[in-house]
Structure formats: structure tokens, C-alpha cells
Design a protein that fits this description.
Largest sheet: 6 strands, parallel
CATH superfamily of the largest domain: Glycogen Phosphorylase B
Strand content: 15-25%
Number of domains: 2
Radius of gyration: 22 Å
CATH topology of the largest domain: Rossmann fold
Order of helices and strands: EEEHEHHEHEEEHHEHEHEHEHEHEHH
Strand order of the largest sheet: 4-3-5-6-7-8
């Protein structure tokens, strides 16, 4: 059933159909669903792969007749079936958003997450992070539809973390306090983290555990090279730790609720943003030195006291006793989106 509201003397209908269009990349999908969830919308999860040329030059999708997808054309594209709202994320999906907006003569409203590297005027709304160049345009005349977040969008809530913390797998529930959760990344498009990087991280974790008496809950990600985890855990010999091996229930995000502090590797903006939602000490560890936009993100997180560097915590463990700022941006972002489109706040 359609939902309508009265806003500025005009009834504005909430979208009856919302699509999240992606190529299946988990980080991109997660942010898109986070936005849909915060808006109270049920979204259909669809896959499409843009052509290589469109990935390089997404604005070309605004040209009539331009090919949008690689391989067999999706059924919905062949049939000309489109949603009222389309949410996309990541530079490589920007062209599909531009193309669908053209094909529907802008009847499909589009929200794109992350800097698309093209003009914001190709979208009805653009959400970028503060470390993106596009963020400087937000709020200036003609760019009121550009919103800025500090971190990445995520679906976690503090209530959900607290609820899942009550049902951790046994090895994690038996760790002694204080518990430091260790969220481990690894290979990414900027670099590959090798054996020595993981051994170095292990030595730093061991030093911090010895200084604080903490037990460690190690949670690797899909990008963590399994063969290098041994280099890390060898350095933890004799210490209290548990490593999730990917079998059985995933202790994340419940471990965020049980942990007294969270250590995250710097390669993941998503993990850092989610950890900062807790308001607990968030300690950033580097597998390799970050540069450019990712380095800018971590500098901003540190300046706003959402995080500290692992080297700082090793030098002065008392810093972990000071208050850390909560990073909870979804309520504000969803309110701004609703206001832009004239949609009603949830009751």
C-alpha cells in the first residue's frame, strides 16, 4: 500500500518499490541496505555488471542508446521495468544509476553512495564521506542534495549489538575481562598485506595484552589471508586469545557488545565506522601505512576522538580510560534524506 504524508501543504508518496543494484560486492551492498533500513524501506536486491567503458566513464550513461550492462541484458532492463527509488553504491555502479535515471525520464529517484567522480547533478541525492573531494560541495548553492558522512553507512545499532552479545559462541564467552576485540582485514585494492605485516601486528597485540592484561578475540574477515594468521597467532603464544576460524556462529557483532575495547586494522573504513558506533575505545592498527583518502579518514576519526592509534595505546594505555566519541550517523542521514524528498519521519 502506498504511504502518503502532508509536507509543506503537499502530499508526498513514499516509494512503493526500492531497488538496491550492485555487482555483489559486500561492502557496497551493506551500505545500500543500511540506508534502506534507516529509511524504513524494504528493498529488492538485484545484480548487474556495468560495461568496462561505463565503469571508467559513468556519465556516458546519460547518452541515449548507450549500453549499460555487460553480457546478457537483465530481464528488468529488457522489459523496461524500473523502481520508484534506486540505491547504488561505489564508483563502478554510478553509470547504471545515471542510465536508469535517463531511461525513466527521472521518474526513478536515485540515491548514490560514495563519490561517483562525476557531477552530483546526475543523481537525485548523493551521499559521500568527508574524506571525498566531493564533500566540499555539500550545502553550497545548487548542491543541497549532496550529504556528507564521516564514516561508511552501516546497519548496526547499539541495541542489536547488545542483544547479540548475550549469545556469543562458547570460546568467546569464556574470555576473561578486559576483552579486546580484534577486527582483522587484509588484502585490498590498495595493497597486499604479507606475512611480516601480520607478524608485526601480532607482536603489537601481544605487547598491548601484556600491558593491559586483556584477552583477545580475533575476528578475521573475508580478505584476511588464512596462511598469514599463523604468523600473527605465533606471536600470541602464552596469552589468552580466541580466533574465530569461520566455523559455527559468527561472533560479530555480538563481540562488540562484550568487548571493553575494539582494535581494527586500518584497511577497512567499514569496520572502523562500525566499531566507533559503540563509543568504546577504538584502536587503529596498521598492516601497511595508509595514504590519500583513507589516511584522511583516519586522521579525521582520530581528531574527533573516535579512535586512537595502536602505537599511542602502547605508549600510554591510560588513554583507553578516557571517553571516546560515539559515531552514530544513520539517524541524522535518514532524516536529511526524508526531508529532501519530503518523506515522513517514522512514528
Amino acid at each position: 500500500m502506498s504511504r502518503s504524508i502532508h509536507s509543506s501543504d503537499t502530499f508526498v508518496k513514499m516509494p512503493d518499490s526500492t531497488w538496491i543494484l550492485s555487482d555483489g560486492t559486500m561492502g557496497m551492498m551493506s551500505q545500500s541496505f543500511a540506508l534502506a533500513q534507516s529509511l524504513g524501506l524494504e528493498a529488492t536486491d538485484l545484480r548487474a555488471v556495468p560495461t568496462p567503458w561505463l565503469r571508467l566513464f559513468p556519465s556516458h550513461a546519460a547518452i541515449p542508446g548507450w549500453q549499460l550492462t555487460l553480457g546478457r541484458k537483465p530481464d528488468w532492463l529488457k522489459a523496461g521495468i524500473f523502481p520508484e527509488l534506486l540505491i547504488t553504491c561505489g564508483t563502478r555502479m554510478a553509470g547504471l544509476s545515471v542510465g536508469i535515471r535517463r531511461l525513466t525520464s527521472q521518474r526513478t529517484k536515485t540515491i548514490h553512495i560514495q563519490d561517483p567522480r562525476i557531477s552530483p547533478h546526475h543523481f537525485d541525492m548523493l551521499i559521500v564521506t568527508a574524506h571525498d573531494d566531493m564533500a566540499a560541495l555539500a550545502g553550497t548553492p545548487g548542491y543541497e542534495h549532496v550529504l556528507v558522512s564521516t564514516g561508511s553507512l552501516n546497519r548496526l545499532t547499539r541495541d542489536a549489538i547488545a542483544e547479540q552479545a548475550t549469545s556469543l559462541p562458547t570460546p568467546f564467552s569464556r574470555l576473561h575481562a578486559p576483552i579486546y576485540a580484534v577486527m582483522i582485514g587484509g588484502h585490498n585494492k590498495r595493497y597486499k598485506a604479507g606475512a611480516e605485516a601480520f607478524a608485526g601486528l601480532g607482536r603489537q597485540l601481544a605487547a598491548l595484552a601484556n600491558k593491559t592484561g586483556a584477552s583477545l578475540a580475533l575476528i578475521p574477515s573475508r580478505r584476511t589471508p588464512v596462511r598469514h594468521l599463523k604468523n600473527l597467532t605465533i606471536e600470541l603464544t602464552g596469552l589468552s586469545y580466541t580466533l574465530w576460524d569461520g566455523q559455527g556462529p559468527n561472533p560479530y557483532p555480538g563481540i562488540l557488545g562484550q568487548a571493553d575495547a575494539v582494535i581494527v586494522t586500518s584497511d577497512s573504513v567499514n569496520m572502523t565506522s562500525e566499531a566507533a558506533l559503540t563509543g568504546k575505545p577504538v584502536i587503529v592498527a596498521t598492516l601497511r601505512e595508509e595514504e590519500g583518502r583513507i589516511a584522511d579518514f583516519h586522521a579525521r576519526m582520530k581528531a574527533n576522538h573516535h579512535t586512537v592509534l595502536l602505537e599511542e595505546a602502547l605508549e600510554n594505555p591510560d588513554i583507553l580510560s578516557t571517553p571516546f566519541a560515539v559515531l552514530d550517523e544513520m539517524p541524522s542521514l535518514s532524516t536529511q534524506v526524508r526531508q529532501h524528498f519530503g518523506w515522513q519521519e517514522p512514528a
